[in-house]
Design goal:
The complex is a heterodimer of chains A (121) and B (595). Chain A is an alpha+beta fold. In chain A, 39% of the residues lie in helices and 16% in strands. A four-stranded mixed sheet of chain A has the order 2-1-3-4. Chain B has 595 residues and is of the alpha/beta class. Chain B folds into five domains: 104 residues, Glutaredoxin, CATH 3.40.30; 212 residues, 3-Layer(aba) Sandwich (Rossmann fold); 84 residues, Ubiquitin-like (UB roll); 90 residues, de novo design (two linked rop proteins) (Up-down Bundle), CATH 1.20.1440; 55 residues, Alpha-Beta Plaits (2-Layer Sandwich). Classes of the chains: A alpha+beta (121), B alpha/beta (595). Chains A and B meet through helix 1, helix 2, helix 3 and strand 2 of A and strand 1, helix 5 and helix 6 of B.
Amino acid sequence: MKTIADIMAIRDKMQSQIIVRDNSDGEIRVVVGMATCGISAGARPVFNALVDEVSTRQLKNVKITRAGCLGMCKLEPIVEVFIPGQEKVTYVHVDAEKAKQIVANHIVNGNVVTEYLITNV
Amino acid sequence: MYRSHILVCGGTGCQSNKSQTIFSEFKKQIEEKGLDKDIQVVMTGCFGLCSVGPVVIVYPEGAFYSGLTPEDVTEIVEEHLIKGRLVTHLLYKDHATTQAVKALSDTNFYKKQTRVALRNCGVINPENIDEYIAYDGYQALIKCLSGDLSPQDVVDALKKSGLRGRGGGGFPTGMKWQFTKDAVGDIKYVCVNADEGDPGAFMDRSVLEGDPHAVLEAMAIAGYAIGSNKGYIYVRAEYPIAVERCKIAIKQAKEYGLLGQNILGTDFCFDIEIRLGAGAFVCGEETALMTSIEGNRGEPRPRPPFPAIKGLFGKPTLLNNVETYANVAQIILKGADWFASMGTAKSKGTKVFALGGKITNTGLVEIPMGTTLRQVIDDIGGGIPNGKKFKAAQTGGPSGGCIPAEHFDIAIDYDNLISIGSMMGSGGMIVMDEDNCMVDIAKFFLTFTVDESCGKCTPCRIGNRRLLEYLEKITSGNATMQDLDDMEKLCYYIKENSLCGLGQTAPNPVLSTLRYFRDEYIAHIVDKKCPAGVCKSLLQFTITDACKGCSACSRKCPVGAISGEIKSKFTIDQSKCIKCGACIETCKFNAIVKK
């Protein structure tokens, strides 16, 4: 037997898990290069860290997707952030920790994390 | 936390195309690759695009794969899930552009739809109550039980929303709830009519298969509103997946205390049982349905008294269709004004249609009331295949009528359809092109109603059989113009004198085709010709001068009716010809015609 509070708790827990299925327009896209080069350089933990961070923060308009090889294999893992109306931002040599900072600083607070940018390489 | 979700359609259409195998194959391969912690495989209800099934959506990309076979799974796992590259050649191709369309929401088929009753179909796992709760499931019930809405508030909200019965009649739902609420009785019942019997209709099945909790929640709300604590789902046994998912849903809801005694710790108690129908069309009629639930032979009885006063087991009973219930929780949550903002003056909200017949995108669509037939057929349905011309759309199944091309721009709502001699019906929409003979269509539906007549009243039992005989006479070329007049009179007689809705509406397909296609009837009777080339008795197969004398047709003919000399024109012996059409399919020179 559940109480109303129990049902609400289930709803909140499940909503963070199904965010992945939201496909609405006007959203922020975060693309992780996940070809062989990306994966062997450690893209998978980066991807999982992004997904975790976005769902913990309940960011409904952010979609994490994969892309193939971006052509700069030595800079992998690469993460690109597309915010509607702004220029694309490319981060390189990302790891799980950096991925979390990107979500917190760039996507939530709007400050590009300049030290991980491709222009610094 | 899963980084990717794979949604496999588990509707009946896709399951008959091996979606169950595809589902297990995904599970197996993902486990083998050690990805089962990262990727979740979910079986959902119907997505609506049944013509290109089995369909699968992969999130977060929203990639929409169609027409898959179990062998395609390896490629999607290897390429898409591991390497992150979309498998372009397996993506759904929009028929209009033929470019590979990536996401389901990008297709013309979906863009023009508004999904209210089907909102969770193809989105959630219907066998997991938590997913329903995640999409605001049971919030409407909580709103009622936590004291925000009194029973009368619920009824008032439905009245204000303008929701009308989606089973076909179009009776205002709020009024029905009010009558049952006001009726005096120690026990009251809440029933759902899931005895969907129209040929080609599968709206209710898809809702029960894709979102069973929506119906359970609405029934509990109805119980709260009218003062009932017992509900019945009457569903046909031919819907095994729907029945199974309802059973699972009821079990889960009981475990969570959303059904049963003292729901969510309040005083409100409500329980639901399933009753299986044996598939008789007449049991979709409300009085016959209740007689069947009581354990008797499913036969209608005269009304009044209406079920709201004296229904199941002689007690006040609220009986609504599946799709009607599927709208209720949304109206309570989003408000009557939100619902009333969709649709036309007298028909609010949306309507689900099962598109079938000569149409590119066979499947399930939900449109706001007031959408034109042209938008449904050309934009959402993808038009008529093979460059053929639209002739008519049949709505309302055996009780309805046809909408001819001259009304192609009619806004679909209850009153408009009745004004042109058709009806909304439960939502079957069968599209016909120039190759369909309208007399033959009327005959098809009459054959169905004659089969399904319960036999209780004479006008329906005998009248419809005589009516069918007239149609057989016409299609075999033996009728006179006098027969046509007599047939029309008989139609009105049956309509006026039958006991229940089945008999009262059975002549509608004949009357409506007579109204718009009388010339076709006359062509059958006077010229002894079937203009569409369907009625076999009136056709003659002949070989034209285009014949090269290759003898392919004579070798194919099963009765040896074709003869001739090689390299000169062959002929068909009309006394032997059985009009099977094998010769036409064989001929490489289009030298055989039927007319």
